[in-house]
Amino acid sequence: MAPDFLDHLADVDVPPPPPPAEFERQLHERMNRDLAIVQLVELVTVVLPAAVFEFARALAGLVRFSLSGKYEMHEKKRL
Amino acid sequence: MDALEQQTDEQLAALAAREGSDGPAFVALVERFRPRVWRICYRLMGNEQDANDAAQEVFVRLFFSRAKFEGRSKYATWVHAIAVRTCLTLRRGRGRRHRHEQPAGEENWVESQPARGVAAEGLSLDLARMLETLGEEDRALLILKYAEGYEYEELAEIFGVSVSACKMRVSRAREKLKALYPDETQ
Fold this sequence. Notes:
Largest interface: A-B, 23 and 36 residues
Order of helices and strands of chain B: HHHHHHHHHH
Shape of chain A: rod-shaped
Largest sheet of chain B: none
Shape of chain B: globular
Strand content of chain A: under 5%
Radius of gyration of chain A: 31 Å
Number of helices of chain A: 1
Largest sheet of chain A: none
Distance between the termini of chain A: 85 Å
Helix content of chain B: 55-70%
Radius of gyration of chain B: 18 Å
Structural class of chain B: mainly alpha
Number of strands of chain A: 0
Helix content of chain A: 55-70%
Distance between the termini of chain B: 52 Å
Number of strands of chain B: 0
Oligomer: heterodimer
Order of helices and strands of chain A: H
Strand content of chain B: under 5%
């Protein structure tokens, strides 16, 4: 039986992978770069907005309490 | 390190998921899967430079999703699926860039593929050109099936389809090639 035309795909030799040390060095460089990007994005989109929000809340509370002269206590309702 | 080498893939993956960074378990995983991932990347990307780039991208993605393995398939299959998806994404991006850079009316991207390295490193030019006429997933299916000898069951898990759908796609891709290249496929 004649071989299938697609069987010739297996005839192609795959070269050996690059040396482990070189591959790991490049991989770590890439991972460090990607980790830095992920952390920077997280800082800008999550951490900084949260920090600004908390700061603004504290500032608003300060102004409100200063004007009213009363410090609002949020006590939990006891059942 | 010897202790890590004796762990199964799944045990090693669980250890890597608990590591805060790329600790010894993840390094052991990279070392264990590097040859296989390299083969997949080389087969799908077609040249050493792109394969190396893709293999590194695979391990970066593996690092970021190392805690997401749910054990629904073998860990090796899961890693192979990441490798295939990464290569498909990179090839699609490459195709888009190429189409974007190429002025309208010139030779189309498919026709220019073998000259850009797909066939340059061993694969017969005709077969490479024929495969480029298929969609990316169909091309990958045929390569993994015929060049790497994957079973339909494993291919189905990698591509997230049923075994019968997988057989159907391979069959249709073969028929498409036979229809397009009746002389070369005899």
